[in-house]
Amino acid sequence: MEVNKNKRIKLILGITLTGIIFIMLLLGIIKTPYDPMEMSSELKLTGASFKHIMGCDQFGRDVFSRILVGVKETLIVAGAVVLIGSFFGTILGTITGYYGGILDEILMRITDAVLAFPSILLCLLIISLLGGGRNTLILALGIAFIPSFARIIRGEVLKIRSLDYIYSVKLFGASDLRIIFIHIIPNLKKVLLSTVLIGFNNAVLAEAGMSYLGMGVQPPMPSLGRMLSEAQTYIFTNPSIALFPGLIIVMMILGFSLLADAVSDLK
Amino acid sequence: MKYVIRKLVTMIITLMAVSALVFISFQLIPGNPAISRLGTEATPEKIARLTHELGLDRPLLTRYFEWIKGIFRWDFGMSYSYNQSVTSLISDKLVITLMLSFIAILITVLVSFPLGIYAARKSDTKLDVVINSLNQFIMAVPSFFSGILITLIFGVILRIFTPGAFVSYKINMFKCISYLIFPAIAIALPKISMVVKLLKDTCLQEAKKDYVRTAYSRGNRTKAVFYKHVLKNAMVPVITFLSMTFADIIAGSIIVEQVFSVPGLGRLLLTSISGRDYPVCEAIILFLAFFVVFSNLLVDLFYRVLDPRIRV
């Protein structure tokens, strides 16, 4: 009973937080209260007011509008990264898990090596090769995310492959492709959902970190990480402009992790 | 002993693979470093001469083996942007990053283990909810934001340290360490909550097993069962997790160094990436990879001491 209550609280909190983020995303796409790129010398570093609910930054740009666009950018990158990671991860995981053999052995050794390598380092390596910017960041993070997806999917496919119903469809003479697409992949849904949520979470974190380092979305486009690093210069006088983007990042990660927890508990 | 040797051999193979990957990928980047180094003064003759001086006209494989040979002599070549050898450029910063990572690891282990054990023992009380929620929250705070919060609280409001006023370990060891403690806390915080959560969960899982019930039925006290049986078995997954965490901490220091303006490897890596100073990039990435692989090796060995059943 107690456990169920905890789960429900997690689920509700997670949905609320991600809901708020989703509304911010919509606002960021449709209309921000002010132009996020418009500078104004009178409004430099003004605090929160009714007109600018989170105040203005060092160039007099409205922080709230910039956060809305930043949320959109972060979610685009995270979404694309998870898409790349889960797509190639599922293909790799299914092939290696289903067929096994020498290919499986080689690919799993490679994923081991990549997983042992911290993803920040891998991203920085790719970015130092290809240069910064949003698209490189998506590519770099996407590549870094493939192994973890492949690993989880492979484990699940291995489990499903040895189930009785797979043997029985094999007896019916189903081809490998049919078994994979009709009988195995639909059963990966649940695992994929919680993996995608966790992956999304990590992607948000990684995007924020990389753009904090200045390797992500390039200025003047706003991004949450870069806003944090720029605001840091003013931490002695105006800590609030650093706090808001940070809190939004925390909210996003907390929301998605609560949701991921709740979903994985549902099983 | 055989196990140790095998692990060492695997480590060397991994490092060779990483070094080859790093070296070759940097060679594949379009553009001649000689041209970018000469800048506007580039004439065809000058480019040809510098290309020859830098040894860029020789085959890839020869250069790779020379690079590797150089590494054993602690020589990583010359930096493109500074007229200095890479070794002199990074050796100072290497020590700083290592100190930072070491302090962070120390904090993580020293704080998370007692806390995790405490949480596991109190898991049926009201405190459990508090610990769980706190954990969930701390895990959601990225290290660079907690770094900013720490700067704000301890640096700006409480004035315990001056943000940005890093003192090199060569000038004052004590001041250097007391400055590094704050970034180390920022790195350690999310790791601590992960370890606490994992330790608690595995302890609880372990406590449900049959052998624990048997231990109780033999008349052991709760404390004895917990420390002698449950904790010992629960440690195995925790140690595995720690080995990944060490790697993360070393890599994570890149970001946190930036927050606290600690002049370590991370900062140098970032400036050399934007300055396209490839020899420096190569050396730093190789170094960080080496520490990651090496810490994994240490944990693997420790793992076996802890649980003799493991034969990999």
Set down the secondary structure blueprint.
The complex is a heterodimer of chains A (267) and B (312).
Chain A: H1 2-30, H2 63-99, H3 101-116, H4 119-130, H5 134-161, H6 164-171, H7 176-184, H8 189-212, H9 224-231, H10 240-266
Helix pairs in contact in A: 1-2, 1-10, 2-3, 2-5, 2-8, 2-10, 3-5, 4-5, 5-8, 8-9, 8-10, 9-10
Chain B: H1 2-27, H2 33-38, H3 44-53, H4 60-72, H5 86-121, H6 127-140, H7 143-157, H8 173-207, H9 210-217, H10 222-259, H11 265-274, H12 278-306
Helix pairs in contact in B: 1-12, 5-8, 5-10, 6-8, 7-8, 7-10, 8-10, 10-11, 10-12, 11-12
What does this structure look like?
The complex is a heterodimer of chains A (267) and B (312). Chain A is an all-alpha fold and 267 residues long. Chain A is 74% helix and 0% strand. Chain A is elongated. Chain B is mostly helical. Chain B has 2 domains: 2-75; 92-275, MetI-like fold (Orthogonal Bundle), CATH 1.10.3720.10. Chain B has 12 helices and no strands. Chain B has helices at residues 2-27, 33-38, 44-53, 60-72, 86-121, 127-140, 143-157, 173-207, 210-217, 222-259, 265-274, 278-306. The longest helix of chain B has 38 residues, at 222-259. The chains are: A mainly alpha (267), B mainly alpha (312). Chain A binds chain B through residues 6, 113, 116-121, 124-125, 127-129, 132, 205, 208-209, 212-215, 225, 228-229, 232, 235-236, 239, 242-243, 246, 249-250, 253-254, 257-258, 261, and chain B through 14, 17-18, 22, 25-26, 28-29, 129, 132, 136-137, 139-145, 148-149, 151-152, 156, 163, 247-248, 250-252, 254-255, 258-259, 269-270, 272-274, 278, 281, 285, 288-289, 292-293, 296.
The CATH architecture of the largest domain in chain B is Orthogonal Bundle
Q: Structural class of the helix and strand makeup of chain B?
A: mainly alpha
- Residue-averaged pLDDT of chain B: 81
Element-by-element helix/strand order of chain A: HHHHHHHHHH
CATH architecture of chain A: Orthogonal Bundle
* Gyration radius from CA atoms of chain B, angstroms: 24 Å
Instruction: Evaluate the radius of gyration of chain A.
Output: 22 Å
Give the helices and strands of chain B as they follow along the chain: HHHHHHHHHHHH
- Provide the residue-averaged pLDDT of chain A: 82
Which overall shape of chain A is indicated by the principal axes computed on the Cα atoms?
elongated
Strand content range of chain A:
under 5%
Count every beta strand of chain A, where a strand is a DSSP E run of 2 or more residues: 0
**Number of domains as seen in the coordinates of chain B:** 2
Unreliable stretches of chain B, pLDDT < 50, 5 or more residues?
none
Quaternary status? heterodimer
The proportion of residues in beta strands of chain B is under 5%
Q: Helix amount of chain B, in percent?
A: over 70%
The amount of helix of chain A comes to over 70%
Number of DSSP-assigned strands of chain B? 0
